[in-house]
Specification:
Blueprint: E1 8-10, E2 16-18, E3 22-23, H1 31-42, E4 47-49, H2 57-71, E5 79-84, H3 91-105, E6 110-115, H4 123-135, E7 139-145, H5 149-158, E8 165-169, H6 177-185, E9 189-193, H7 205-214, H8 218-228, E10 232-233, H9 240-247, H10 256-263
């Protein structure tokens, strides 16, 4: 179990991935994002998650580089993730998209590259491109995002390398138990996006009661719940005080009763698109 902000899980290829990171979904390019990335790294975060479609890789890269200069942390100690967007799926176009992301970020390699959505008829060819990048040593780990069990099963019929990570929407009202069990069985690390349900759970009475018991915020309770379930989590924030608060989840532990109560909040409710029914 994660006991420190820089603790890691070992992916099935031996790569160490931080349990906790900063997400930057819907954060626009600009100084606010540069400062957020720098603040996170200075506070001890080692994982930053972005994507081509977020259109903010330049600012993420700037924040990373400024943090490296100011803190003298080694690039090798950071874990940087990006994702190939739907419009770029396909073998050659995925390879080109990877180069574009690297250039925008100003990096020589990524630690993790993901297929963002399971677009039918396209993601298997993109996976072949990710395998090429991985075999060439240009990315440390490869994975998928928003893949359901049947998508992974289809992928693995032709894949030479199984995904190392599956990043999915996951929070107390969408616990994805079957998917988590499947991924654990196959050695695929589950990572939660939108762990706080885009703020919709921050006044939930059950979560508030548990938060009061531990003298923590509801956000901290949810993030701790992720970690105790063995799920990597990447909450989004641009505010330094929130970045610090979100990471203060390693000095307490939820009881089995707490976890059972939070598990019981599941409604299979999504705030994002359904991976089996999306159109973009």
């Amino acid at each position: 179990m994660a006991k420190h902000l820089q603790d890691t899980t070992t992916l099935h290829n031996g790569i160490q991935m931080p349990w906790f990171g900063l997400g930057v979904f819907k954060v626009e390019e600009g100084e606010e994002l540069v400062h957020a990335v720098k603040s996170a790294i200075k506070q001890g975060y080692r994982s930053i998650d972005t994507a081509a479609i977020y259109d903010n890789e330049k600012s993420v890269g700037q924040g990373i580089h400024e943090a490296i200069v100011e803190t003298r942390i080694a690039r090798e100690d950071l874990f940087i993730t990006s994702k190939v967007w739907n419009a770029d799926l396909g073998y050659e176009s995925t390879l080109a998209a990877y180069e574009t992301s690297l250039n925008k970020l100003g990096l020589d390699y990524l630690d993790l590259y993901l297929i963002h959505w399971p677009v039918e008829g396209k993601y298997t060819e993109s996976w072949r491109a990710l395998e090429t990048l991985y075999k060439e040593g240009r990315v440390k780990a490869i994975g998928v995002s928003n893949f359901q069990i049947h998508h992974i099963e289809k992928l693995m019929k032709t894949a030479a390398i199984k995904p190392m990570v599956n990043q999915v929407e996951l929070h107390p009202q969408l616990t994805q138990n079957e998917l988590i069990s499947f991924c654990k069985e196959h050695g695929i690390q589950v990572e939660a996006w939108s762990p706080l349900m885009q703020g919709q759970l921050l006044d939930h009475p059950v979560l508030q009661e548990i938060a009061n018991k531990h003298n923590k915020s509801i956000a901290q309770i949810i993030l701790r719940w992720d970690l105790q379930h063995g799920i990597v989590t990447i909450p989004k924030s641009t505010k330094e005080h929130r970045i610090i608060e979100n990471s203060a989840v390693f000095d307490f532990e939820l009881s089995k009763e707490d976890i059972a109560r939070i598990d019981g909040l599941n409604q299979n409710h999504r705030v994002g698109p359904d991976p089996d029914n999306f159109d973009f």
